[in-house]
Design brief:
Length: 267
């Protein structure tokens, strides 16, 4: 894609486009951007006398307040943004109703207040801190934060210790899903004090990466795109009830286990 658009202007245009897309598909009250991850490859063909061409992919971290939260709205809306922009833009979308924000625990309200005060409003109306009971919030409970993180990590550690290599393959896959979820929730909460309401592992990993960027040698994001690993990372307890125990290749499950252990050791 050839472009001479200034990067800041380009992002403003991108956010405007994303805001318009989301407004078409849900009843947005407000939409904020609280982070951007930019990937850009620029090509200069000097011999052919061509101007620079740039392939961009921007990923946006968005917070939406909606009137009603439809089933699976988070995943559906993120897919719609990627589809309608033909993959130029993707997003990690945090989506909540007014009621959910107002009734949140004090620890989580600090995150919502930061959104109102620091994030960019890109669509809809500015949220009212008083109506959302985001004024006069008690100070952060640092001990409570540490305990939540410690408890998640201890549970993950216990499961990793119990799941040795001789364990049945299907049970090992399901347990690795649980361990990874615990680690991702721990990392997200330690930075943002935020409880997600969408728990697909790829989604949680994207939010975790915003909080704690990690290199591919610890846990590559590409695992979520490769069929054999994607299935393992989607394993859940329903598989124990209904699926064949030969559902996954053992070597693939052990590969996932290795990366999960790397992630645990890095935290």
């Amino acid at each position: 894609m050839e472009t001479k658009t200034h990067p800041i202007t380009a992002r403003k245009l991108a956010l405007k486009e994303i805001g318009s897309i989301l407004q078409k598909h849900c009843a947005l009250v407000s939409l904020y951007c609280f982070g951007i991850h930019c990937n850009s490859n620029t090509k200069h063909d000097i011999m052919d006398g061509k101007c620079a061409s740039e392939n961009r992919h921007d990923h946006f971290y968005l917070f939406a307040c909606v009137e009603k939260l439809a089933h699976n709205a988070t995943a559906n809306l993120m897919d719609i943004v990627a589809t309608e922009t033909k993959g130029r833009y993707t997003c990690t979308l945090l989506i909540h109703t007014y009621k959910q924000i107002a009734k949140a625990q004090p620890e989580q309200k600090h995150f919502y207040k930061d959104i109102l005060e620091k994030a960019w409003l890109i669509a809809g109306e500015e949220l009212d801190a008083e109506k959302l009971i985001l004024t006069d919030i008690p100070e952060k409970n640092e001990e409570g934060i540490k305990k939540y993180v410690s408890d998640r990590n201890k549970l993950a550690s216990s499961l990793l210790i119990e799941m040795e290599e001789h364990v049945e393959t299907l049970l090992l896959a399901v347990t690795m899903h649980d361990v990874l979820e615990l680690l991702l929730l721990s990392g997200i909460y330690s930075r943002l004090q935020y409880y997600p309401n969408h728990f697909h592992l790829k989604y949680l990993f994207g939010l975790f990466q915003f909080c704690h960027p990690i290199p591919d040698y610890i846990f590559p994001a590409s695992l979520f795109e490769q069929d054999q690993y994607q299935e393992i990372l989607n394993a859940n307890h329903n598989d124990l009830r209904f699926r064949s125990k030969n559902l996954f290749e053992r070597e693939d499950v052990l590969t996932v286990r290795t990366f999960v252990r790397h992630l645990y050791n890095s935290m």
